[in-house]
Amino acid sequence: MKFKRYIVFTFVTLFSATNLLAQQEAQQVTFKKPATHYLEALPMGNGHIGAMDFGGTNRNRILLNEKTLWSGGIQDADSDSARHYLPAIQDFLLKGDNKAAQELLQQKFVSKGNGSGYGQGAKDNYGSYQTLGDLIIEWKDTTTSVTGYHRKLQLDEALAATTWKRNNTTFTQETFVSLAGNYIAIRITASQKNKINLSLQLDRKENAKFSQESGFLLMQGQLPHKDKPGMRFAAALRPVAKGGRIKQTNNRVDIINANELVIYLTAATDYNLLNPAKPLADPLQKVITSLPHPANDNYAQAKAAHVKAFQSFYMRNSFSLSHADPQLSKLSTSERLIAFSKGTTDAQLPVLYYNFGKYLLISSSQPGTLPSNLQGIWAPEYQAPWNGDYHLNINLQMNYWLAEPMGLGDLAEPLFEFTAGLVEPGMKTAKAYYNAPGWVAHVLANPWKFTSPGEGADWGSTLTGGAWLGEHIWEHYRYTKDEAFLRKYYPVLKGSAQFLSSILIKEPKNGWLVTAPSNSPEHAYVMPNGFKGNTAMGPTMDMQICRETFDYVITAADILNVDKAWADSLRIVRSKLAPLQIGAAGDINEWLEDWKDGEPLHRHVSHLYGLHPYDEITPWDSPEMAAAAQVTLAQRGDGGTGWSKAWKINFWSRLGDGDHAFLLLKQLLKPVGLIDGINYGKGGGTYPNLFCAHPPFQIDGNFGGAAGIVEMLVQSHGKDEVIRLLPALPSDAAWQQGSLKGFKTRGAFSVDFNWKAGKVEKATLTATHAGTAKLYLPAGKAVADAAGKVLVEKKDQSTVVSFEVTGGATYHIS
Ligand code: FUC
To answer: Which of 193, 222, 241, 379 is most buried (CB neighbours < 10 A)?
Structure first.
């Protein structure tokens, strides 16, 4: 009896130890050294304020960001005469003279002025997202040696911590960006009294002045805008020390012989989210008054409130794989990346990547501010790559692919509001270029509501950026069935459909309706006459976006009981759109004709938009097209930038090929050194701090990669929105046992399940609304209601089943 108890005890202990290990391996980004570069620093944020802790023990840098800090300002980049040239450009295209069309487009149909400043718009009207600056912590003792150094970001608590030992004293620095209050908090402790001796300073290389008030360090400034004064910003820092003394001189704070120190820091700008044309008041007073007062300082409470607020998002869902390796927990994250790339099994690394994606979403996107940009909220530059803006031909959208399935759709609010904010300027752009109703946004957008085409004919005339944003509004509805939400944003969707339906022209060969002039994002074709160009009519992605937009607007009008006659007319237009076509090589045509690719391995795979994110192509609804999509993917190859690889993980998962998806995930996790600058040739990967390498750092790959993991595990797309568990599970041994909790599916369901030996063991499905559930039921499983009554049973083979559900009820699959 005793012996048996001992065995059970040992088993439980071992089991929970492995579990704990797995948890830590999946929840921590760790380093054994201070960062030498921001791509080794630990990112934190609350959607408004961003921080990156370098973990230095002599001189520590904390890189600071504020989401709305943008140079430039509102510009009128619409070329008013453009619409007069539209018929001529279209005529050239109809006659097959794409060269003349592209030349005229470059002269008359691009943005007025410098547009985005050729990607270098910081000092131009377009502007650039900029770093706020740095907090510098300078320790007095920098000569004695440091031992026992460790640095980690604890993802499930959103806390960074550095520990080190110097002169027999153990120091710790803990940092968070509060989700409960709008500030950064940094607490420094020492194992012995009077050992904290350091100085604090704020720094910024451009457009800033520094000052101090009793108990505060201040920074304020104004950014350049070509014609007028630009955005004002301010930051304030307040140190709270226990023991010792604080001395303030020359905009510097010295902490002398303290036992403990807490630093609070906040920042704001005068950017007016509701009306960027009318800046808010000078933010200086706001930052001073919004910092916690020393008299009320209670770090423990502030930390607890932050962790609680953060976990209210983070704990909504979880993904775990059972396998853990005790050896791996001794490695730093970058050592794990290297080992993984050499073939070491590290089951928890993909889980860590998933968790990191979730962490980044919560930290960079919160209601009430701008959406996550090309760098989320973490930029060290004054001229960010591509201005750190909102690219609408994949990048901004990819940043939000995670939100709905993770049950974090409320964090996409900044995206929905940003999209709605583009309607008004986009209506002006639609008139100026196409003399069309509705609204358009092209390839680029910024907080100043830029909707004009880009300045280059070869990339700037993609006209579906705005409609693609609308897809996220529709997806939110599909996941939640929230009619009030749909009603609120219906005018945005309707405006896109109005625009797209009114600009279509009839192409001469088949009489299909097509967009013109447009392009297939950033890719070139080679015409049979040898012309290599971009300007085209009816590129495949446009036609897919038209079908998708028209379909959901027609459905939305029906749900909301509005615009019946118009929706009917849209149905007719939809039926005349150029269809998907399979080319001579068995692939999906990217253009209306089966032209050769300008760059066969190009990073964009826009013509597979219908496979993902749109669900026009699925292996079950359209097997022939799915097979052609697979040929396209094979042609394009597995290379590409970070986001391109991330997209391909999603594509392969939707084709049900978990092994190919995992192959690409492994490539996305390939360690990349600290390369600055843009180098398409090198391909994507992962920096030491897990940020995605385009290169340079671009956050879309982090989000897209984590979303790809979701697609491997749960899908619910296609005509019938059938819920599929483990639709693309890799055959790798490390993936054969695991569990998921709190996932959302289209049709407004929540699923939890676990699997063993690669097969679903038990699952529960909770319905938010009454209706019909459609489920791909694994062989040998049955569905029962909460009372245990069996509703459907399929013993012999896996198949799609449907059953009626009650709102709020849970169903068990076992
Ligand atoms: C798109 C991509 C580039 C880059 C840029 C920010 O235009 O083609 O690779 O990601 O956005």
So the answer is: 379
Pocket of ligand 1 (CB under 6 A): 374, 386, 391, 393, 395, 522, 603-604, 641, 643, 694, 698
For the stretch 757-768, pLDDT in tens is 999 999 999 999
Per-residue burial over 289-302, b if 16 or more Cβ lie within 10 Å, else e, is ebbbeeeeeebeeb
Cα(761)–Cα(684) distance, integer angstroms: 36
pLDDT of residue 137: 98
Residue 756, classed as helix, strand or coil, is strand
CA of 120 to the centre of ligand 1 (A): 14
Atom of ligand 1 nearest to the CA of 386: 6
Q: Any residues with CB less than 8 A from the CB of 342 and at least 6 apart, and which?
A: none
Quote the ligand 1 centre to 207 CA distance (angstroms).
29
Cα 499 from chain centroid (whole Å): 27
Burial 755-778 (b: 16+ CB within 10 A, else e): beebebeebebbbbeeeebbbbbb
Q: How remote is the CA of residue 158 from the centroid of ligand 1, in Å?
A: 29
Q: What pLDDT is recorded for position 17?
A: 63
Give the number of other CB atoms < 10 A from CB of residue 785. Answer: 15
Peptide bond into 385 cis (omega under 30): no
- Nearest one of 638, 551, 274 to 424, comparing CA atoms: 274
Q: How far is the CA of 703 from the centre of ligand 1 (A)?
A: 15
The residue whose CA has the least distance to atom 11 of ligand 1 is 391
Cα of 69 vs centre of ligand 1, distance in Å, is 21
Residue 494's alpha-carbon distances to 409, 518, 578, in angstroms, are 21, 21, 21
Of 116, 372, 391, 703, best ligand 1 pocket probe by most atoms within 8 Å of the beta carbon: 391
Give 643 Cα–ligand 1 centroid separation in angstroms. 9
Kindly state the tokens that stand for 645: 């690889």
Token match 């070329």: residue?
Answer: 79
Would you state the pLDDT for residue 20?
Answer: 73
User: Are 657 and 693 contacting, i.e. CB atoms less than 8 angstroms apart?
Assistant: no
Distance 597 CA to ligand 1 centre (A): 18
The two tokens of residue 700 are 């879309």
Residue 681: predicted pLDDT: 41
Q: How many residues does the chain have?
A: 814
Low-confidence ranges of the chain (pLDDT < 70): 1-18, 674-682
Atom of ligand 1 nearest to the CA of 643: 10
**Does the global pTM surpass 0.90?**
yes
Instruction: Work out the number of other CB atoms within 10 angstroms of the CB of residue 38.
Output: 21
E runs forming strands in 645-785: 685-686, 692-693, 714-715, 724-725, 738-745, 749-756, 759-767, 771-777, 781-784
Residue 136 DSSP one-character state: E
Q: Which of 373, 395, 541, 678 to mutate to test the pocket of ligand 1 (most atoms within 8 A of CB)?
A: 395
φ, ψ for residue 526 (rounded to 5)? -120, 120
Nearest CA to ligand 1 atom 10: 395
Residue-wise pLDDT tens digits, 617-635: 999 999 999 999 999 999 9
Which segments of 684-780 are extended strands (E)?
A: 685-686, 692-693, 714-715, 724-725, 738-745, 749-756, 759-767, 771-777
